[in-house]
Write the structure tokens for this entry.
Amino acid sequence: MNLRSLGMGLVAASLATTAVAETTVNVLSINRDSTPWRTLYDDVVAEYNANNPGVTVTVEYMEDESFKQKLPTLLQSASAPDMFFSWSGGVFYEQAQQGFLKHLPDDVVSAWQQELSPGGMAALSYKDKFYGAPEASQNVAIWYNKDHAAALGVDPTSIETWDDLLAMVQVAKDGGVTPFVVGGQDKWPLHFFYSFLAMRIMGQDGMAASAAGENGGFDNADWVRAGQEYLRLIELEPFQNGFMGVKYDQATGLWGDGESLFHLMGDWDLGASRGAASDGGLSNDQLGVIPFPMVTGGKGAVTDTLGGASGFVLTSKAGPEAIDFLKTFMGVEAQQRAAREGVYIPTVPSAGGLVEDPILKQFAAIGGASTYHQLFLDQFFGSSLGGAINDVSAQMATGDITAEEAAALLEETRAFQ
Amino acid sequence: MARTAHTSLWQRWAQDDQLRMILIFVPPAILVFTVFVMMPMLQAGFFAPWKWSGYGPAPWAMNETTQTTFGRWVGDRNFERMLGHSAFRQAVWNSGLVIAVSLLVQLPLALALALMIYRTSRANTVFRLIFFLPYILAEVATGLIFAFALDGNYGLSAWLSQLVGLEEAWFPLAERPWAYYSILAVLVWKYFGFHMMIYIAGLQSINSELLESAEIDGATSWQKAWYIKIPLIWPAITVSIFYSVLGALQVFDLVMPMTAGGPSNSSHTLVSYLYNFGFIRLDVGFGSAVGVFLFVTGVVFALAYRNTVQRGQ
């Protein structure tokens, strides 16, 4: 071989390398155990890979708790993914603030706000910068068991105020039916009651003021009243026997077995309770859904919603290919398919109407009519203050602290942040 | 003998060829000890005065994106907050309860059983095996088993409640203070066998001539136990007390599956408190402060115990 051909060979080799240079986009997701969800991801990824030669997308799945534990170190390492699943809220704010995330260019933001959900985009924004694309929307409402309601002679759809609900709880107690099942050991199922009461009482402005530490932060009359209303419910002993020793999974199994009249839980409970129940759970005909009622004199609205806003966010190492894939991954087409197949309730407005499952449809309607969507308080306020909200919700349920003490404890935790 | 008195330790090592052994075996041990024991302890000490979520290499490291440090200096406020936290005081009290129950229930029980079955016989071997079995079970598995057994819906508790005619099933793990009492009961059940084995080993090494002469002098079996056996196995007892107190400070694996610290943070031990409020809530500085407290407690106890009870052993 002479020198010239060697040079040619080198040139050819380097050209070849450029031609097959592959950009990989690594996605880290939480486990998508339900087959339709996993299949949806697989199909979207396969199609994207086929249509975009030169880009390879790989998705890695991790169990929720290990995902949470591993992420802080993973984000700082060389093997950080290009994008990962986020529940938004305090943990997401921390990641954005510490500079581990990449914000979207302005033109991309305005285009996505047109097509995807502006509200969902806002949940994944921090200080006016947008970091990702929203996926499913989750809402919490009161489920009721139609069989029990008929037997007790009550109509839960007539409930308008908190007092109406408490009256119906009493009817159930008198009729020998457990009013609510709850997984008290996990604490967060209890915090839904306290959160909703606070939202109904103080409204969006009051909640924002508390978060900002204005008007006494959490130690004010509104939070105390939220606690007092919650304690009115607790005094009726509305929960199943031994509720503080039961986790959500077991509690929702009890609900699926028809153990109670009501269940305060999110839309995801439909699949969860059927999976956990001993014989397939309650059928669509047995299930009803009503929004959490108004509290008389409150500044909120019955259409204010509490729930999740999850999606995928970009890490600081994400390139333009990652942004392009995210657009497809969380895009209109994928979300419409999710809606049609009942995989999840999409955030994209044009997909919301496609939900066919009669129960999920009601949740989609609640989400669609939302006048103010509040992220789960234990996520919105971050791990520390959010954890404290869960703590006081449980402590009030066991009668260990008063409404005033709960408010003071929350303010103390907030002030320390 | 005179020679050894005058030669230094160093010379002796060199002569006995022990130096090579020391050079081969000691550095790896020191390395492992430094990396996995000393470093984390020192780190906890350095992290404790910071409010830090765990992002970034260290709370004092500069974050290039934000031009501030990853953590925020809060001085002694983590300690202040910890000492003022009702759940922390409950955790300290609970850890104290473990020590009390170990010393007053578990060790006397283990000693009594050891005195009954320390002699070698087939029946005694069977009993020893039975009493020792709980110790072999993994702690998390034990916790899960008892979480089921004490569940009022389908566990032993449901059956018992029915048997005694309770109208509503009893859920000990959902009620304070029963949740923590249940954990204490399981701890006693799980570890008495271990202490019993320590005592049996001690009892078996007692010279039988001593006991025979006591018998000839007309000592009752109570007198033999009190005046001969227990004093002779006192070193074994002090070791078992030492283990049981340090073990009490480390209780964690049983608490998580049984109650996860609930209801309302009433059944946390120091370690489960640290895990819950430091790790789960991403408050590494606060968790480090709890770790420092735990470390100091352990060291103070160990030093005090070594210099008093175990002095001269």
Q: What stands out?
A: Residues 81 and 370 of chain A are 34 Å apart (CA to CA).
